[in-house]
Amino acid sequence: MMGRVTDRAPLADALRAALADASYTYDGVAELLGPIAHNALSRNETAPGLRRTTGGSPLATLTRLFLLQATVPVVDAEKALPGLVDRLCVEGILERSLSEVAARIDVRPYGAQLDEDSDRDFWVVSDLTPGLDGTPNKVGANHVLGISSASTSLAQLTLRHEVGTALDLGTGCGVQALHLAGHAERVVATDVNKRALWIAGFNAALNQTPNVEVLDGSFFEPVAGETFDLIATNPPFVISPATGERLVYRDSGLPGDRVVEDIVRKAPELLNDGGWCQVLANWIIREDTPWDERLASWLDGSCDAFIVQREVLDPASYVELWLKDAGLQSATDYLHRYDTWLAWFEEQGIEAIGFGWINLRKRPAGAAGEPTLRLEEWPYDVEQPIAPAIAAWGEAVDTLATLRDDDALMGATLQVREDVQQETVGAPGAEDPHTVVLRQQRGFRRARKADTVEAALVGACDGELTVGQILDALAQLLEADPAETRAAYAEKVRELVAESFLELA
């Protein structure tokens, strides 16, 4: 166990001050580089950035040193990091010769959206980004990944309500812990990679988050007996044959998608009532079993679950993706590795790999009714961060729990969500449209075809009249039987609530 790390605070404080004094922030670097060089760097190309950072200012020096991985003169390094160069060399963050300094570790500015209304500048230490300028991107077994598309996706997925305790399972460089520290009283970050734990601890100190505690151990072992209000995890989910090689940040060492299954089965035991576990994951799609049936079999009934399959890759595309990630495209045994992986998929009956989000919410002991399970494929564009839409789903589940009885539903006062718009399609000059579509502008951006009654109902849900009053008025207008209209549209109203078109007034 590593616990809270205080011995790094003096160095971290001094480094933070130097980075801040140089305006070495996400916006500062973006302005220095300009859009062309900044976009090129996002593609791992440094030439445009090197041309923009020749002025010798502290900001230019730090950008060249850490982001562009170029050597800088000792005098410039001392100017940008006054009194720190030798100390950072001792810690393995820098290395120097008589005249030049080079980075051995990435120190990257990171602009994070904490919630809908506030942003914060962080600095994230990790191993150097591999593969700049077309060089081989081969990484070591204990490589500590920095900011990535996966870490950003999990940050956008994770709920940001105030909680007492939060767990960052498999913390890596600790970026999720930094996010969690802003809205949790206590954050525990675990990992089996001791190098990752050192870096995560340094990042906690660098960003002044004393409520982060780092613990050494596999999965839930370091927190046995504890419970949490929120668990966020991007586990090492890559699905591959056991070849003896392992990149810790992506390979769990467990067969197939067992690592994800184990987390889904175990996490409910560590959640407080109402607590959430949110997982960014891969899962196997077998030839003989629908993906949603397979994942539903992992659930024990103690949690409501919202699982979204965002993408599906065929075996060949999946193998190519992760061989490239490991920097093996030019390896002499590339074709052998590729074929071995494909053969293993075939032996296992794997026809595809799914990627997406798993959201579990712990039901209170003795809660009435069955848990709400929503498993859907949604490859479409969504608003980011998506976390508010996940929270809205939880609120809709709670609302529907009070509206199971038709009398309660008809007596409810609902309102249309403010971002919902109505689209109509019809022939030019026609008196009535032949299609009405209700479309959300935010969250999942769902679209739903509606008939005349459903569209009129949604339009009338302004928080004043009950559902029953609206349906009765529509029935009278259409010369239909009120009781039959209520019965025909009760489930449609529940669907509109479940999909967040309507909410309690």
From TrEMBL:
GO MF assignments: transferase activity
Domain of life: Bacteria
Entry keyword annotation includes Transferase: yes
Keyword Transcription regulation: no
Residue stretches making up the Methyltransferase small domain: 151-282
One Pfam family per UniProt: DUF7059
Gene3D superfamilies noted in UniProt: Vaccinia Virus protein VP39
Domain spans labelled DUF7059: 22-103
Domain DUF7782, first and last residues per copy: 392-498
Keyword annotations from UniProtKB, A to Z: Methyltransferase, S-adenosyl-L-methionine, Transferase
Record-linked InterPro entries: DNA_methylase_N6_adenine_CS, DUF7059, DUF7782, Euk-Arch_PrmC-MTase, SAM-dependent_MTases_sf, Small_mtfrase_dom
Family: Belongs to the eukaryotic/archaeal PrmC-related family.
Name under which the protein is recorded: Transferase
Species annotation: Nocardioides phosphati
